[in-house]
Amino acid sequence: MGQLATFIGLVMVFGGLIASFTEYRIMAVVLVALGVVMYTLGSRGQQQSMRGPRAISQLVDALSEFDDRYRLYNHMLPADHVLLTPHTVFVLAVRSMEGRIRCFKDKWVRDLTLGRLLRFFTEESLGNPSKEAQQDVNKLEKYIQEHAPEVQPEVQAVVVFTNPAAHLEVTSSLVPVLPLRKLKSHVRKSAGRTELTPEELKTLMELFESPPRS
Question: What is the pTM for the complete model shown?
Answer without folding.
Answer: 0.73
